[in-house]
Every structure is written in C-alpha cells, then in structure tokens.
Amino acid sequence: MAIRLLDDRVVSQIAAGEVVERPASVVKELVENALDAGATFIQIEIAESGRRRIQVNDDGTGISLDDAPLAVTRHATSKLVSADDLSHIETLGFRGEALSSIAAVSRLTLTSRHRDDEVGLRLRIEGGELLEQAKVGAPVGTMIAVENLFFNTPARKKFLKSDTTEKRVINQIVMNYAMAYPHVRFVLLHDDREVFRSPGTGNFADVVVKVVGLSQFRQMVEVSGQDVVRGHGGTIRVRGFVSEPNLNRKDRTRITLFVNGRAIQDSSLSYAVSQAYHTLLPKGRYPYGVLLIQVPPEIVDVNVHPTKAEVRFEDASVIFSAVQRAVRDVIIGYSQPSLANRRQHSDYNRDWQDEPRLRASQLDFDFDVSDPANQPFEYGGQSQSSVEEGEDQPQRVRTLPVLRVLGQIGAAYIVTEGPAGMYLIDQHGAHQRILYESFKAVLDEADTLVTQPIDTQTIDVSVAENQAIQAHDEMLKRLGFELESFGINTYALRSVPVELAHGDVISGLAHLLEKLQERIDFDTLLMHLADIVAVKRGVILSQDDMQSLIRELEYTPSPKFDAFGDTVILHFSSEQIARQFRT
C-alpha cells in the first residue's frame, strides 16, 4: 500500500484520541480553560455519565468575537507565544489542542462573550466541521456544551466503563480542582441532581471537608506550609492535610497531589508521603493526604503528555525531600494527648472533642440482658443479639474444650490452660468471631440487626461516601443504620447497631462506607462491622472479662480463626512445652 497523507479529519480524530479518552477528559479540559480565564464560578452539568451531554459554564473573562473561531482550531492558544514560554508555564492549558480535539469527536456548542464586548458569539461544530457562527446575547463568560461524545468514533465509545465508574472519575476531577482553587465556587450536577458544591471562600480546609467528609477531616492534621525548602531552582512550599497514623488504607490511591495548581500522578511523591509515616503505620497500610506543592515554574516540565497529568522535575530528589520532610515534621510529633491541640486548623473542629478511650473497667461482659444499652451478648449464655432460647432452639454445640484463664499478655492475648496443654487466644480476633456469628444468627431470623436509637447526629459525608450510601442503602439498614438525607452530602443519623451505640459511631460508619466503595458483599460488610465493635488489642481485661469471653468462644463455630481467616488460637501441647525444658 502506498504512503499517503491523512486528511485533516482523520488527523484530528487521531489527535483527539490522546487528549479525549473518556467523558472525564472533556470535563478536565473545559474546567482548566475556565480556570485559566479567571473564573470564580464554574458549573458542570453531566447527563448519562457524560455520554449524552457535558456542559460547563463559567464567569471568566470570555472569548472575544475575533478569537472565538480560533479557539476551536488545532494548536491555537493565547497562552504561548514562543518556545521559550514552555520553560515557565503558569497556566493549566497551553497546547492549543483541547477544544479542537473535543470538537472532532462530538457535537460541540460554544457560546462566549468577552468582558469588553457588547455581544457574544455562538459556534456549533459537529465532528470538527463548523456548522454555525452567529452573534448572540450572552452574559460575560463561556458556556460549552458537548453532546454525543464519540458519536463518530464508535470504537472509543465501546471502551468506556460503567456509568458508575465514569461518574466517579468525573467527580474526582472536579473535586481535585475545587481543592486546588478554593476561591472558585464549583457546582457539579449529574442528571439534574446536584452532587457537589464547593464554598468558594478561599479557605482550603473548607473545601477539603466537603471532599473527604467531616468525620475523616477530623482525623487529619495540617501541613502548614510555613517551612520552605531552598532548592537549586528557588523556593518550594508544601501545604495541605494528611491523616493521623490511625487513619490509613490498603493502597496509596487517597494521596492527592497538586503541583502549581495542577493535579498530578507521581508515584515517587506518593511514596515520599508514605515514607514520612515510616514505623508509624502497619506494613502494607498507607495514609490519606491532600498536598499542594508550589515550585518555581522553570524547574518543572508539564509538557510531558497531552493529558498533562504527568510532570518532570529538574531535580526530583529535592521535591521528594521537601514533601517527605514537610509531612514527617507534622506526623513525627503525633501523640494522642497533644492531638487536640493540633486540631485547631479549622472552625469545624472548635466544638469537637475526642471520645474518651475505652478502659478495661468499661468492658462489662457479664451484663443484665434486660438492658439493651449493654454489651451485645452475655458471655456464658445466649447472645443478646440472637433469638431467645426456647424448646425449639437446639442446644449450642461446644467447639473447644473447657479452658481455664491464666492471664493476659501484652493487653492483647489471653493465656488459657486446657486438657491438652496451653492455648494463646487473640482477644480481638476471638471477640470478632463471636460477634460475626452472633450477627449471622440474628439475620437468619430477622431482617435487621438489633438497633438502638441515638440522639440524632448530623453528619457530612464525601461525594464518594454519599454515592455508597445511596447505592447500598438496604445493606446499611440491615446492619441497623437509619440515615435520612438532610441536604447535599449531609445525613441525619438516628439509629445504629446496638453493639456500636456506645463506641465511636461516626468513625465506625465512615469505615463501613469506605469498604462499600470497594464493592464488597453484605457478608464481608458484616465481618467489618464485627471487627469495628470487637474489643481491641491493648485493652486490659479483668479475669472475669477474659473468662466470660472464653466461655462464649467455646460455643462459637470456627473459633480457631476470625471472620477474615486470621488465626485466633495458638495451641502448645504439654509435650511441646516439656521438650523445651529437657536437656
């Protein structure tokens, strides 16, 4: 086949493939254009996860009558004049590809009025071809509507993910820019329903609360940005919020980084944040964080890829050290007694106090079953949460030999003696298994776990948590949570599982919502609830507490492992022990 030049339409579609990968790519490019235009209000409207329509309105300076036709032309931009400008880019966009690439694979309508013009201009483009150009009345600013994305590139459309996934990616992009530009008011709607609104007050903490939710924000500490690092290229400043060590997750996906107002993906800098927690987090666990990194534009190259999600630094080691040190300086001083003093970074925390830590004397395992406020079951008897015994109820089957409690090691492991030697029992794992089996027994006979009304608490949740609540409302009801919508991303919490009522209700619910975002099934969610309310390692138990716990474990199915399959019991026979003393 002979070599030939591609026509302009094919070239445009190929170029668009690098810039416009999915609906979220369109949102990103249009939001960046709005920010570069100095907008203080940006509204994003999405229909059918962006497949049918994406519309972005802003109140920026607008595009002049003369410049509007050029705005949708390839490699036309107002942000660069010469190649030298590439060495100190201070705008989000600069390549002059976004609008032309979007217009090449959609039906695009652009309406804009520059602040110096009396009228605006409307352009209609389909698949890269200009269909209409007309002067119209319009407010100062720009409105761009993108319809039928990928209508002329069906192969690209075929590779889009589910509506839920596409919406989630769009949400994250909008929330990222809301955090990077706290003085701008963002509003995001999906199918005419508002899902996110940033306050636009200029207060970074205000936006972070809206994005991560108040319960998580209360477990974060501020990286003040007061300490600056002098690198080879000038001043580097790092500020933001990172989680306390006790708030962590299984991967680094909740570490959000910005360089000069641009959300970036940089595994090295994410690693720098994680390394700041060295020795403070369990192996395989990672922190949450939102960090704004400000560097001189001449030491960072943003012209790496058309999506501009990756950057290169002149001296990456200097940036790595700056990030690690800024986070480490805050986290290294972490201690529970002084934590309240460090939680003054936002008005949201002024009326908030730490829940008192659970002491051994508070663990009343042998309780009056007539009092629903007590612990979930009476050790040595039938579970409070399970059905009452009667003639039709089978007797419980013993699953362990009779064990005598000898003591406790490290406030975590119960030492017992049985007919076949010594047994070491993980108190948290044992209690978790007991609770999990108790919950299952209740749900075999009833629709929900036993609930307890609480004084109504109003809670703010993140957009992702809100989606989890809406998608899994029935699962949460089965667990015993009564949540009533109380505004955008706000709920009134009226009742909870009785086992959680006297614990940290908000943190417990937040943990379950995080797990629901991982698309776990109901049984796994039940395991996590049991894990949340089970007695923790580090709690000193009385002799009676330990004996009651062991009595219940002796009649619990699969007592040797917790609900997640981790070992609960270690057995050492008398012969094994004796061999250690023989010479």
Give a description of the structure:
The chain is of the alpha+beta class and 583 residues long. It has 3 domains: 8-202, Histidine kinase-like ATPase, C-terminal domain (Heat Shock Protein 90); 207-348, Ribosomal Protein S5, domain 2; 361-391 and 398-571, MutL, C-terminal domain, regulatory subdomain (Ribosomal Protein S8, Chain: A, domain 1). A hairpin with a 6-residue loop joins strand 3 and strand 4 (120-126). Helix 6 runs antiparallel to helix 7, helix 12 (427-445) packs across helix 17 and helix 15 runs antiparallel to helix 16. The protein is elongated. Mean pLDDT is 83; it is low at 79-87 and 335-393.
What order do the helices and strands come in, and which of them pair?
Elements: H1 8-19, H2 23-36, E1 41-47, E2 53-58, H3 68-71, H4 98-104, E3 107-113, E4 120-126, E5 129-136, E6 141-147, H5 154-158, H6 163-180, E7 185-190, E8 193-197, H7 204-212, H8 214-217, E9 220-223, E10 228-231, E11 234-243, E12 248-249, E13 255-259, E14 262-264, H9 267-275, E15 286-287, E16 289-294, E17 300-301, E18 312-313, H10 316-331, H11 336-342, E19 404-409, E20 413-418, E21 421-426, H12 427-445, E22 451-460, H13 463-471, H14 473-479, E23 482-485, E24 490-497, H15 505-516, H16 522-533, H17 543-553, E25 569-572, H18 574-581
Parallel strand pairs: 1-7, 13-16
Antiparallel strand pairs: 1-2, 2-6, 3-4, 3-6, 4-5, 7-8, 9-11, 10-11, 11-16, 12-15, 13-14, 17-18, 19-20, 20-21, 21-25, 22-24, 23-24
Helix pairs in contact: 1-4, 2-6, 6-7, 9-10, 12-16, 12-17, 15-16
